[in-house]
TrEMBL record, chains A, B, C, D, E, F:
PANTHER family: 4-CARBOXYMUCONOLACTONE DECARBOXYLASE FAMILY PROTEIN (PTHR33570), GAMMA-CARBOXYMUCONOLACTONE DECARBOXYLASE (PTHR33570:SF10). SUPFAM superfamilies: AhpD-like (SSF69118). InterPro entries: 4CMD/NDH-1_regulator (IPR052512), AhpD-like (IPR029032), CMD-like (IPR003779). The lineage of its organism: Bacteria, Bacillati, Bacillota, Bacilli, Bacillales. It comes from the Bacteria. GO terms for molecular function: peroxiredoxin activity. It holds the Pfam family CMD. Residues 36-120 form the Carboxymuconolactone decarboxylase-like domain. This is Carboxymuconolactone decarboxylase family protein.
Length: 134, 134, 134, 134, 134, 134
């Protein structure tokens, strides 16, 4: 890793510590076997630079991320960011509302996939599903 | 559920009864645990309003739906609508032609995924594959 | 042009004669200056092979095409196919219903762009807008 | 318009009054000439139902909307929602940060188109560009 | 199969023999049970016509194909083309660089899915991962 | 601009000097009025880091970029990269072949938009169109 980006890399790790736990950081770093450069770019540029530039809070950025992933159908990374949302104190109800908002803007099929992924993850984590208490 | 939309909801259930069976309706309603609002919107707005507005027939709408799903790569919902197509009397050959048409407009890779999903479903349902008799 | 595909090319021209007029065929052929191969493939493969394989009618194919274009946001080719729809006897109301169907499956923004394009074209062609008489 | 949805329609108009001005509402209603049904659905379902379901604030929803539009490349509707953002008190700097966030998640080209559209609109509205004072 | 396209079909098989092995050709031909027409079009048009038109080399075309698949999120066909890349002598490191390039142009989430698929395939094939030796 | 990224920024400017001319660099830098951070990221991360990591040549990267842009329908940035292709010595014929390759992988409509944009640019630049001499 280029020493030039060491500061960004450390800022990225700091952001990741707020979004995820040791397991999540290991998951991001596990891309090192296929591409150390890609791993470094995700951490230094993605989390270290984009997430720390400007005034938006981490909660806002994580909500925007979920909307972006659902709207472009990039579902493989959605569980990581739903976990991050929970870690940041975004409620399961709010997570569901973000996905529901995308139903109007990106169509029901993508929202339905997002809902299914959120349900699977909530169940895995033992989080009460937003619709169960209503 | 808002009484205001009760009529649309019932129209949606009526449409669903033509598209699917009890199992399919249960599948749609199973989203209630994660989001009763999303479930209500799919049924009232999606099936109850969009599907009942205007003059297009259910067969036409289901063919358009399959083309939309393949063209945007939203494959998770494709089996539900291929099942609906079969229930409405659209032949397996016609279903395959819809997906093949998308090869020209959305590229071979998305059409190939659609073909694989159709084959898996036809085999699960015991429907003779369109290419087997030719 | 490869003599091998001459038959497909002529079938493509025959399909185009049903979808469009001399002006439309010239428009398709105008890509020859940038790529004779691409032009030949559109006509021989797209219109000559895909459009003539199987049992779907031209009206059905044109409705599927409009749904595919709106759902993937490929709007530049939409006017050509809306014109084709009109030439085939699909009513302006039905064209609007195809786009509206996509609102549920691909979101309101893409449907709104489709509606704006349909309106612009209907006005250019002097076709009464579906909402004006209601 | 179906009396059944009158309440949702009025809720949609109320939401629109917070997002936009008379000119913006007229713009939404201008789709009536091409499709009164589509116009009614955008207002009743989109703004009247989706925007009023759950606990997210209008500011949050508008930020999610901008992220969804940029991420799926549906730029034609972006100016309407950037105007809404300004009306709701979201700063030009925050609007730019939402688009910048999408650079990481949906790539630089879509973010660049979003930036160009925001700049054009800010200049049209006489809003100082976020980069000019820095 | 139309004798008219026999030459293109044979050219397609010749291209496939350079891209893949018997197993890969069988995989492409396995679509015959669901749609002999689609299978024929993939081979005659896709591999027989598009891949043999013009001056680009097979290596270049395969790199473009990988970039196209990652950029549109059409991941199901990616393993076939990564295998083709390896068969053509494109190094695992170069394959990873193509996917990494897409991170900037189509966003990190699609690139991350591409990286995961490449890793899974390299491990299945016993290819040393590019990051392991560094 | 963060001094930390000064080296990457300068590497990005060096890459840009090979891809474009003073006018092109000014165009990239013109985003500074809307977002100096975005401009810095495009140059430092996009051109300075992604383009300089690994062994792919600039010609290869520019071909991949064109395929990515066409395949995701991000056409606004396509002229910049077609100009870059010409500056790097990629022939108009090869540019057209890249777009044509995308017809098979992302559908004819996106390829047709790419062809139209290439033609407009070639005409603006006084470059002989590839189809005119054939």
């Amino acid at each position: 890793m280029d020493v030039n980006n060491k500061e960004s890399y450390e800022k990225g790790i700091d952001v990741l510590k707020k979004l995820t736990d040791e397991h999540g950081i290991s998951m991001i770093q596990s891309y090192k076997d296929i591409s150390p450069e890609f791993t470094e770019m995700m951490i230094s540029f993605g989390f270290g630079t984009v997430y720390t530039t400007g005034s938006l809070e981490l909660k806002q950025r994580t909500m925007l991320t979920m909307a972006s992933l659902v709207s472009q159908g990039a579902f493989e990374q959605l569980p990581f960011h739903i976990r991050a949302a929970i870690n940041l104190g975004i409620s399961p109800q709010e997570i569901v509302e973000v996905i529901l908002h995308c139903a109007a803007y990106a169509g029901f099929p993508k929202a339905a996939s997002g809902m299914r992924i959120a349900r699977d993850l909530f169940q895995e984590l033992g989080v009460e599903l937003p619709g169960e208490s209503s």
